[in-house]
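Narrative of activities, Objective 1.

The group set out to show that a structural description can be obtained from nothing but a protein's sequence at a throughput compatible with the screening campaign. Below is one input-output pair from the validation batch, recorded exactly as produced.
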Amino acid sequence: MSPAERTVTPLVSEIETLVAGVHGWSPIDQLFGLSMLAHTTSHLAGDIVEVGSWFGRSAIALGAAVRDTHGMLHCVDLFPERADWQQNADGSYSFETEIDGRRHAGYQEQTVWGAPFESQMAPVYAKSPSVLDGFLENIRNSGLDRFVVTHRGTAATFVRQVPPSFRCRLIFLDGDHGYKAVRDDIALLAPLLVPGGWFCFDDAFSSYDGVNRAITELVIESPDFDVKRQITRKCFAARKAFRV
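Output recorded for this entry:
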């Protein structure tokens, strides 16, 4: 699609076309909401950061917004392989993966329930054994690879890697859903957000108590954020206050 064609194509329609066939759980209304927030921060300095990318469904929506505005999208994920996942005694799943000789654990506190893993994730792994390869392919196929920087790691390794001057105008958090993991990610990433920028959360106030608790304690109850609102069925967003 040419820039002229994009100008007169409804944004939601372009998002639907771009993510068609890309596996993931982000509904179109959430992708549209994230895209609109990214567009409305185009007057702010800074890039966009996503933690938890899977096969790139939300990254494509955010990457298209970066293409239309400015900056880069930084996608942070451990991208675990199928062999990294192990079934727990209660039937749920967690994983450990190795990156540069260091072990990283995921979904230890808030595990992935057994039935969804077997019905939704295992079949995807059977078709695409490498999540990272699938993510990169989807980004290339969407024509957005020039706007996306991929970081295989955690929010902690990402923050250690970027220069002290790095700032972002929107953060989308969709990583490990355990309370401690979400709390740590918020604490690490919030200082990178410019005043007026948005911190967005997937699976908020739906069915993950750890996610809800961390958002409540560090965002809703914090004066560092002024506008705070559930924007779709499972996506919460808060604007960093200009006074901080």
